[in-house]
């Protein structure tokens, strides 16, 4: 049995959300005390309501989120193999916000590891944002991001998807979002708000981060997992 590493952040009322995104609300829809009266023999159940953004917390963007063109695939229209496959995690957590992550940073991080990046890999980029500020208000404000050239480099390396342990692969000081614009142009998607990348830094593993089958969804929360063969 391989080792499973949870790369997902928790979902709860009060969790940080990207500025301008829908807040998360969780409520008791039916409690044991309420439902026991509806049955005989002691049966009861507890269920909750859940309202949240389709971009929160650990989630994958649909192409329709990135590209306004007619026919850009929504999350339910994207092939499942987009969300599963060989992966590598590199560490650029020495870059402090508000600095940008550059091509040099990415290349040096790869060179420091034991594994080559292969075309078709998922590349997870440990920025350190979750480790620094996860669960605090700072998390949605203080993080670094890739510059334009670093975004183009991801495309040139042939990555299938990529992901970050921060609210966005774009630096929050940017107003042009070059990495999201690369994703729009090339129809490459990415994961945001990953967690626990310190546990898989430098490793090669299988990544799984399947979205919910939301009709017309512009993204979806995922349970992101690294499947590690030690
Ligand atoms: Zn995004």
Can you lay out the helices and strands and say which pair or pack?
Blueprint: E1 3-6, E2 25-30, H1 32-35, E3 47-51, E4 59-61, H2 63-66, E5 84-91, E6 100-101, H3 103-112, E7 122-126, H4 129-133, E8 145-146, H5 148-156, E9 161-164, H6 178-186, E10 190-192, E11 204-208, E12 219-221, E13 225-228
Parallel strand pairs: 5-7, 6-8, 7-9, 9-10
Antiparallel strand pairs: 1-13, 2-3, 4-10, 4-12, 5-11, 11-13
Residues 61, 168, 180, 190, 192 line the site of zinc ion.
Enumerate the spans where pLDDT stays under 50 for 5 or more consecutive residues. none
What structural category arises from helix and sheet content?
Answer: alpha/beta
> What is the level 1 CATH name of the largest domain?
Alpha Beta
- Bin the strand percentage: 15-25%
Net shape: globular
Count of folded domains = 2
Chemical compounds bound to the protein:
zinc ion
CATH topology of the largest domain: Glucose Oxidase, domain 1
Could you state the CATH homologous superfamily of the largest domain? Putative cyclase
Number of strands: 13
The whole-number mean of residue pLDDT values reads 97
* CATH architectural arrangement of the largest domain: 3-Layer(bba) Sandwich
Describe the sheet with the most strands.
9 strands, mixed
- Kindly report how far apart the N and C termini lie: 10 Å
Number of helices: 6
């Amino acid at each position: 049995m391989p080792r499973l590493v949870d790369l997902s952040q928790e979902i709860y009322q009060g969790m940080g959300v990207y500025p301008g995104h829908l807040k998360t609300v969780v409520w008791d829809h039916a409690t044991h005390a309420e439902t026991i009266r509806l049955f005989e023999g002691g049966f009861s159940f507890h269920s909750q309501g859940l309202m949240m953004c389709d971009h929160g917390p650990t989630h994958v963007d649909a192409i329709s989120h990135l590209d306004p063109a007619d026919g850009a695939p929504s999350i339910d229209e994207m092939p499942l193999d987009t969300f599963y496959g060989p992966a590598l995690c590199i560490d650029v957590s020495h870059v402090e916000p508000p600095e940008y992550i550059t091509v040099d940073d990415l290349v040096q991080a790869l060179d420091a590891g034991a594994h080559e990046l292969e075309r078709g890999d998922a590349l997870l980029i440990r920025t350190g944002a979750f480790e620094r500020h996860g669960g605090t208000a700072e998390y949605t404000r203080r993080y670094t991001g890739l510059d334009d050239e670093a975004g183009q480099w991801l495309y040139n390396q042939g990555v299938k998807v990529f992901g970050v342990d921060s609210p966005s692969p774009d630096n929050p000081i940017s107003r042009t979002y070059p990495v999201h614009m690369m994703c729009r142009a090339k129809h490459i998607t990415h994961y945001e708000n990953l967690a626990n990348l310190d546990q898989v830094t430098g490793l090669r593993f299988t990544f799984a981060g399947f979205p919910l089958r939301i009709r017309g969804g512009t993204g979806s929360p995922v349970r992101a997992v690294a499947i590690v063969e030690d």
